[in-house]
Amino acid sequence: MTTTPALVINQANAPMVKSQIERRPVGKKDVRLSIAYSGICHSDVHQARSEWGSDIFPMVPGHEIIGHVVEVGSEVTKFKLGDTVGVGVFVDSCRECDACKANLESYCERGPVGSYNGYGYDGEVQYGGYSKEIVTDEHFVLKISEGVNLAECAPLLCAGITVYSPLRHWQAGPGKKVAILGMGGLGHLAVKFAVAMGAEVTVLGHSLSKKADALAFGATDYRSTSDEQTFKDLATKFDFILNTTSANIPVDSLLGMIKLDGALVFVGLPAESQSFNVFGLTGQRRSISGSQVGGQVEVQEMLDFAAANNIGASIEMLDATDPATIDAAWNRVVDADVRYRFVIDASTI
Ligand SMILES: [Zn+2]
Ligand SMILES: [Zn+2]
Q1: What pLDDT, in 10s, does the model give residues 296-334?
Q2: In terms of Cα–Cα distance, which of 53, 140, 134 is closest to 89?
Q3: Is residue 65 within 8 Å of residue 132, measured between CB atoms?
Q4: What distance in angstroms lies between residue 280's CA and the mean position of ligand 1's atoms?
Q5: Are 63 and 158 in contact (CB under 8 A)?
Q6: Which ligand is nearest to the Cα of residue 39, counting in written order?
C-alpha cells in the first residue's frame, strides 16, 4: 500500500476535507499515475450528496483524470514511465461477457467497476481522481497525445465520451442535421465534436444566453425551446437530437422536430420518468434511446479524434489549497453557472 493526499467527503453533504487515502500496491497489470488534473462532473455532486442512493463514505470523487505514469507492473505492455495518460469513468469490467468482448465495457453484464463510489470485484472501495495518485489496470488507462492541453483534456474522459459515443453511433457526419439540447458541460463538447465530424449543428437552449458561444463552437443555428415557434420552424428537420440536459423535457414537441427514422437520444439523466405519445414515434418510425459513456477502444478513439481536431473542454481551473473552493464550485455546477467545465489542479490537493 501507498498513501496519497486526497479530497475526501466523510458523509453525505459534508464539506470536503484534505486527508490521506491508501492506494493498492502496483500489480502485474497495473499502472500508477501521478495525477495532474481532475475534472468535476455533475455526477460527483449527485453522489457525494447521496442524491442517487447507495453511496459509500468516505468518498473521493473524480472520474476525469489526467496524469503521468510513475510506476508500471511487470506485465504492463502499453505504457512506460513518463507517459501522459488518462483514466475515465470505469476501472474494471468482467472482460468475458458479450459486451466486454465487443469492446463495450461500459455495458458489462456483470457491471463495470466505477472509478469511485463503488466496489472492485475484490470488494475494495474505489477512490477517484480528486487525489494525487491512482493505481489502475492498464486496460482502463488511455494514451494522451503529445501537444494536448492536459487540463482541457481532462473533461473528455467522462463528458467527452458521453457525447462522442452517441454521435458516432447515430452517425453524425456530413449531410446530417444534428440538434444538441442543452449546452452545459456535456452539450458544449457535443457541439464541438458534431461540428468536427462534419454535421450541421443546431443548439436548442432554454434561453438564448449562450448563442454567441454556440456559434463560436461551430453551430450554425441556436434556438430557444421557450419559444413555441422554434418547434414549428424546425419540424421534421433533424436526423437526431442529443439531449444533454437532466431536466424534464417536452418529449412530444422534440419528437416532432425529428425526421423519418431519426432518434431522440438521452445522455443526461433526469430524476423523474419521462413520458411520450406513441403516435410521435410511429408516424415517422422514430426512436427514443439512451447511451452511457463508451468502451475503452472508443474512449481512445475519441481522445485521438479530439487531439487531431484540437478539441478540448472550455474550462475554469480550480485551486484546491482551500477545499471549500471545490465545494463552492460544486454549488455553481448545480446552478449551471460554469462555462463550461471545472478542472482541479491536482498539484494543489
Ligand atoms: Zn462523469
Ligand atoms: Zn463484462
Answers
A1: 999 999 999 999 999 999 999 999 999 999 999 999 999
A2: 140
A3: no
A4: 31
A5: yes
A6: 1
